[in-house]
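Record type: ASSEMBLY
Status: queued
Input:
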Amino acid sequence: MSIPTTPGTPPNQGAPSSRGFIALRWARRAPRAIFSTDHRIIGFGYLVISLIAVILGSLLSLVMRMHLAWPSWQLPLHGPILPEEYLALVTMHGTLMLFFVLTVAPQSGFGNLILPAQLGTRHMAFPRLNALGLYLTALALIILVAAFFVPGGAPIGGWTAYPPLSSTPLAGPGEGLGMDLWLASIALFAVATTLSSINMLTTITKLRCEGLTWERLPLTVWGWFTAAILSIIAFSVLLAAILLLFCDRHLHSGFFLPAQDLISGVLLQHRGDGSPLLWLHLFWFFGHPEVYIAILPGMGLTSMVIANFSRRRVFAYRLMIATTLLIGFLGIIVWGHHMFVAGLNPFAGTAFSISTIAIAIPAAAKVFSWLATTWGSRPRLTTPMLFALGFVSLFITGGLTGPILAQPILDEYLHNTFFVVAHFHLIMAMAGVFGLFCATYYWAPLLFHRTLSEPLGKLHFWTTLLGAYSTFLPMHFTGLAAEPRHYSQLTGIAGPSATLLQSTLPLQRHITASAIFLLCAQLPFFLNLLLAWRRPANDPADANPWHATTMEWAPNALNPHPNDEPSIVYRGPSHYTDSGKEFSPQWSPVNTFNTEAE
Amino acid sequence: MTILQGCAQCLDSTRATPPTVQAAYRHAIILLASAGATLFIAGTLLLRRQR
Amino acid sequence: MPSTITPPEIDRHRISDGNNGHRPPTDKRTGGNGEGDGDNWNNRPRGHRGPHERISQARIGLFFALGGDLMFFVALISVFFVTKASGHFDAYDHFINSWLPTAIPSILWLNTIALLLSSVTAEIARRAMFREVDAMDEWFGLGRPVSYRAAIWLSATLALGLLFLAGQWVAWDQLAAQHVFFRSNPSSHFFYLITITHAVHLFLGIVGLIVALAALKFSRSLATRQVWVDTTVWYWHVMGALWIFLFLLLEFGQ
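Status: finished
Output:
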């Protein structure tokens, strides 16, 4: 995988010709690569951050699953998993995955790598702001992981950090310094994401090339645009909430704290007149848009990839733009559905329930467009296409439980069970990750100058799909059988619930085994990357192996020369002949066939 | 006077909320939602207006 | 019109032209009448077509940044209203609202006036950046009237801004003398939270002003100077308007 060099700076400029000083040369060149303001290097930097976070987060989830299925299992070099350690695992798994994988990789990672090329521009609007976002994100990850190593260990309050338990070190180990580090890390992350979103929004608004009107923008760009607006709105509120929680922890205020509270046997009096409900409002005002920030770029990519390999136009293109924006818009006003069981006013609950169920309309429109685009088209089932179809499948499976959980009366029962875990892992985690795999396989010829192996890719897809369903579908059943989430141990509970939970244990073991299988299914992917790295680069003449139509596949779109003519866009994306053999890319002035003129 | 812990505490303290406080929450919800929605629409219109 | 601002031959062939100085600094987007030597701005990639486009790009970036800021303060204000209404039940089941309005030091009125004045001076500086006569003078080599005029008014803004921050400091001092601290009461939490977060934002504005002044002094490119002054002044205006709102909230909303 070659990292593209900064355009305009000839490699080894003025370097001595002696070859013995490779280390020296690296020492000279590394800072230039790390502190580069080139959006492609920044994009790779974000992907590296995500890769570290996803490996760490997956290993944490593996330990959790092992502990749930075999509570007496001992972690090598560590010993048994204590309840508070299990909660720390839950917290860190959620934080790493939500923030550092699902926010960073699709939006900042692939956004930086591909977006400018899709817009036909050579640079982003604010390269230095962009680079600053990367450094702050890296710093945030370091601070977060540091929480494992401080006295008390990582925080145990969950990725949602609900007060009052997140407001005092009394609540348990990890709620002291660990929680402070968590707050610092997420505050930095919020700033970083805001900066990078400002850059992205300005780039999309101002730097589109000639002819790229807003209806000709690829749906991926619409996904990134909507997600970036949501980021700005949501992360600012999260920052305010974190500031207030910090005041509650250290400055004796009580925004989120009731007048009296019993925490770990200690009675805390007159800390404030606040309510944890207030934190829930602020946090979920951020938390729900966050879900769409994670999934919208994947939705856009799915549309484009399905159209490309079906050799069809995206069904109802303008409607797809509208649904992307509508999902983003509705995403802002539905946060209360996370709070049905927290004692939300029933009227507010009804309002949030209605707006939540309303999201089913644009979401269903998207699904119909994906299906209509590919229906009866004899698509080429390449690996990226398979992952896009997998995205659709997981989106439907995970999405169908959405309207169920959106009803307060059903949520009352299901909220604290594994049913919810199944729901958000299918629709957000798995669909999001399938979007990322789709992006990697689809854009590999651009990013690595090598096509990833198809047989290995297909093996990766089928095993991952099987593993994903095998892991997360049974959670619906254990959830319906009242398996609570956030419980470190399901055995040894007294009373009638013990029998109920006992009945889920075989399924628990199946889920754990599937999770291990799912993790092992990722080995072909890494093997694939490794093999591609060792293969010679693709022939530059074969720069568009998928016969794609969007701008990033134009010759040298990712590595433009400063003297190149500026790009011009002549039509919308996805123009193919009926046979699919011929196509008119966006950058080609010649229309190879007669379709309706734009 | 109640001393509670965890979710039960949250639920009960919310149920004991007087109507004026509930109204304050309602206003805060409307303020947050409308500010967010306005900003979202403004951003989208800006994209549309720039050529 | 374009022919009157076409640079003479000798200027058009000078190298290292990062749209600074050598090109007519007033943006007409006409692209002059040169062809093929990169002189036609319409042939250049987006974002490099002249001063106007850079300014518009900076303004849009600022718009989104301020949108995020707006949400930050909206979140604080929502919490303000909820906390103001909240209370607890005492042993006799009486609802106790412990919110005691914080008496706002009257120096804040003076600070507000200083901030309003600073917005006026900033606007004068901003408009001075776009006076075509001055821009042409500079291009003809008759000194730097643009920078000169703007720097004076921008320095006045900087002084008034520092005066505002000093005034805020005095207000915190006065409250501390009356033993009103952050922890005293829910209302004082908000007084300090709001004034301090606003002061932090204004401090960023001061940094922006200093950078803009440095740009006025050292940058050869008129476009760069225009971008810095224009963006900083818009930021300053919004922070001023935000302060008016926050001040009214603290003064009358408690």
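Annotation: Confidence is low (pLDDT under 50) at residues 1-39 of chain C.
Annotation: Helices of chain C lie at 9-12, 51-85, 107-128, 132-139, 145-177, 186-218, 222-252.
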